[in-house]
Design goal:
Layout: H1 10-14, H2 22-36, H3 45-61, H4 64-73, H5 84-94, H6 112-120, E1 139-145, H7 147-152, E2 154-163, E3 169-178, E4 187-190, E5 206-212, E6 218-221, E7 224-232, H8 233-238, E8 240-246, E9 249-255, E10 264-267, E11 283-290, H9 297-319
Parallel strand pairs: 1-5, 7-11
Antiparallel strand pairs: 2-3, 4-5, 6-7, 8-9, 10-11
Helix pairs in contact: 2-3
């Protein structure tokens, strides 16, 4: 069992309550990821470690199965919470029961094979149907990739816990092809990496559930991406070239004069690749007008002059 010293409070790491829903988790993650991202804190090892902790916490809490185990077992959630001794004690406390209750035969004697079968699968049971070759059970595991990996696709090596013939688990390195544009929650099949077969049957398949990490700069909605781009107030008023960053690099974009705060501009075909289809989604630029700070005396004079001009125009319009 994991010690209390090794326990990590993922809720505290993200600064959310234990009742936080998916949207609250995502908002907390995006806020902290932006704050501690290595791009924002180059060379800051403490910020890099904090960024990794935030990622780890979000990876667990966003996965319903992992979160359920974490909430139930705490520090021992990765081991499923129960030790062999706990499983034995649980069955003993249940006592002999009629009606073929798993773990006890009809005479009231404890059948450890039945208990193992119920906990870990049919391969631990003795005798029943052992002569018929059957394919092993399929299993599912979650793997995490970045938005950049989901964008470009390609091959990726994962370290996966897979069942072995002795009934335990071993770590294998498995190369998996990630299709460009793979959506969050997509399952990828890896043949022959599931539970061992019974009676000489083939192994089952492994299904990898892809989880795409939220990005600190881009929001994904299907094949479309949205990113916030800061614009100085004078540039928003007069128009001009602004610098934008995409998943493939950076470039310039011309905005129109009198651009309003929060205005969205669509760049067609600059979003995510369409999963197993041709083409790409759109990239939406959300223009966030930035007000200057620490104004000089001359800058204050200019803004005051602008105010007088605008107020004069407003009075003239009212008089008409």
């Amino acid at each position: 069992m994991a010690s209390r010293a090794s326990f990590k409070d993922y809720y505290k790491m993200l600064g959310v309550k234990r009742t936080a829903d998916e949207q609250e988790l995502k908002q907390a993650y995006r806020r902290l990821a932006r704050k501690y991202h290595p791009d924002v804190n180059p060379g800051d090892k403490a910020a890099e470690e904090r960024f990794k902790e935030v990622q780890e916490a979000y990876d667990v809490l966003r996965d319903k199965d992992k979160r359920r185990k974490y909430d139930q077992f705490g520090a021992a959630w990765r081991q499923g919470g129960a030790t062999w001794q706990q499983a034995w004690d649980q069955a003993r406390r249940a006592g002999p029961q009629p009606g073929g209750v798993p773990g006890w035969d009809t005479a009231g004697d404890f059948d450890f094979g039945d208990l193992l079968g119920n906990l870990f699968g049919e391969r631990f049971r003795g005798g029943r149907g052992a002569g018929r070759p059957r394919a092993g059970e399929e299993i599912e595991q979650s793997v995490e990739i970045s938005l950049e990996e989901a964008f470009r696709g390609g091959s990726r090596m994962f370290q996966i816990q897979v069942p072995n013939e002795s009934g335990g688990r071993s770590t294998e390195r498995i190369e998996v092809r990630i299709p460009p544009g793979v959506p969050d929650g997509q399952r990828l099949r890896v043949a022959g990496k599931g539970h061992p077969g019974v009676g000489g049957g083939p192994r089952g398949d492994l299904h990898l559930k892809v989880q795409v990490r939220p990005h600190p700069r881009f929001e994904r909605d299907g094949d479309d991406l949205t990113t916030d781009v800061p614009v100085p107030v004078w540039q928003a008023a007069l128009g001009g070239e602004i610098e934008i960053r995409t998943l493939t690099g950076s470039g310039s974009f011309r905005i129109q004069p009198e651009t309003q705060n929060g205005q969205r501009v669509r760049l067609s075909g600059q979003g995510m690749p369409r999963f197993r289809q041709q083409g790409r989604g759109n990239l939406y630029i959300r223009l966030m007008v930035e007000m200057p700070s620490r104004l000089t005396a001359r800058e204050k004079e200019l803004f005051a002059e602008l105010r007088r001009l605008r107020q004069g125009e407003a009075r003239s319009a009212t008089a008409v």
